[in-house]
Design brief:
Blueprint lengths: L9 E6 L17 E6 L7 E3 L10 E3 L6 H18 L21 H11 L49 H21 L1
Antiparallel strand pairs: 1-2, 3-4
Amino acid sequence: MMPHSKRPDIQFHVATLSADMAGGKVHDFSGFTLSVCQLRPESRGRIELASADPLMPPRIHANYLATETDRIFAVRAISFARQLARTRPLSDYVASEIMPGPGVESEVDVLAFARQNGATIFHPAGTCRMGADDAAVVDPHMRVRGVERLWVADCSIMPTLVSGNTNLPAIMIGEKASDLILQDVRQQ
């Protein structure tokens, strides 16, 4: 997508059903869904406590498409997916485009569609960033700074996203955490 990229920027998903979004209600007509995912978004959201009540859900501010780069990626990726669907032989199987729909053509309209319909694909990361600086939540041994005998071992420690799905990195983080925790316990 970007000329200077050394690795893939976008991941395409092809679902053999038609739905408005991943995991959404399947339409009552046959179809397929093309969706796109920017692999290394620059926009950063945040999670904050809603109150001192631990039963209250946190406030989640996704902050999607906050950077110009992310907006460019969204428009280019959606436009490419649409171009793909309009190309033979795939176009032979497309009766009509449901979303974003034939009335959405300009970059401004495509971006508006992305803002209205964009969502996570279940890979949020980085809410407990690992690092050696004062802003890091966990240290390089995955220990929560300022709290004894508490470690975080999931994708929330990633300072930035990996360029793909997070399942394997989550397993790797868990494996490394088990080694580090055993090391820490043995040293005490």
